[in-house]
Amino acid sequence: MKAVMQHTSEVATPAVDLAVAGQPVRRKIQSVERALSLLELLAEAPGGVRLNDISNAIDLNVSTCHHLLSTLLDRGYVAQSRKDRSYFLGNKVLELSGSRMRQFDLADLAMGALRTLNEETGETVHLAALQGDELVTIAMLDSLHAVRVVSGHGGKSEAIHATATGKAMLAWLPEGEIERIIKRRGLGRFTDKTITDRETLIEELRQVRRNGFSIDNEEFQPGVICIGAAIRDHAGAVIGSVSCSLPTMRADEPRLLTVENAVKSAVRTICENLGGTVEPDGDAVHGQ
Hints:
This protein has 288 residues and is an alpha+beta fold. It folds into 2 domains: 2-89, Orthogonal Bundle (Arc Repressor Mutant, subunit A), CATH 1.10.10.10; 97-286, GAF domain (Beta-Lactamase), CATH 3.30.450.40. It is 43% helix and 19% strand. It has helices at 2-7, 30-44, 51-57, 62-75, 91-97, 99-103, 106-121, 164-170, 175-185, 198-211, 253-273; strands at 78-80, 87-89, 124-131, 134-141, 155-157, 214-217, 224-232, 238-247, 276-278, 284-286. It is elongated. The N and C termini lie far apart (47 Å).
């Protein structure tokens, strides 16, 4: 961190004299301006951007640019592709951009669809979101059956890789962000079916994107199967996920298909309530 500070110390740019307008003189912090220019560049790029291209685009020497990127990477505002080492916006930016959504409470917005899902399936329903690297359950409706899944009432979980809600959201994050979360949180084991191998999990997430839903096959709780799908805004950014949990005794193939369709329908309704629609297995479609 000291090395970063040495290369990117906060240097004030010349003050702009606003005395004519009777306003106080304002000074700008150069390192903050550079970081913001870097983020704005990545936001406008259709794909990842390499270090030298970033350096040239914002007229900054490569060393200083690299230190800025390293700081932003460490904080989650920037992510990096393992394939070509290019940089793109990280999940922390998505978290900030979702602050407007949080102001009107995703749980309130989604509750109608959650109740419908609960009534149609009779099973336990969860609404979850990512807070930084942590999976947080923000709403839950209990099963209507006598034999039901009991999974607690909300709170944070270390099982982002082992739950349907967690995998549904992970699948739609940028590749570099997925890698950062795996590295930071690890792949802990909860049952003998928990995926603890990185390559296996990455392939599982590819399946989630292809199918439009995730599945937790006794990976978090023995005897429990969950099906989930991601809630994405009109631009396709992940802001949450919905899942439906049922005991394996009721999880035959026809039943699972019914639950899968009901979960995807609930997510579609929630996305429409957000002002647009995102097909669980497709691209964003802007609302009117």
